[in-house]
Amino acid sequence: MSFFDKFQEGLEKVVGPVATAVSENKFIIALTEGFLLSMPITLGVALIAVLSNFPIPAWITFLQQTGLQEVGNQMITLTLSLLAIYVVGAIGYRFTVNEGEHGMTGALLALASFIALQPVQSFETEAGAVSALLTEKMGSEGILVAIIIGLFIPWLYVKLSRKNLTLKLPESVPSNVSRSLAPTFVAMIIFGLVFLVKWLCLLTPYGDLFNLLTTLIAKPISAFGATPIAMIIVFTLMNLFWFFGIHPNTILMVYIPILMMTGIANQEAFLKGEALPYYAISIVGAALQIGGAGNTLGLCIATLFAKSEKYKAMRKLVIPANMFNINEPIIFGFPLMLNPIYFVPMVFSPMVSGIMALIYLKVMPTIALNPTISMPWVTPGFITTFFTGGMSLLILWIIALLIHFIMYLPFFLMDDRKALAEEQAASNVTA
Question: DSSP letter string over 38-82?
Answer without folding.
Answer: THHHHHHHHHHHHHHT-S-HHHHHHHHHHTHHHHHHHHHHHTGGG
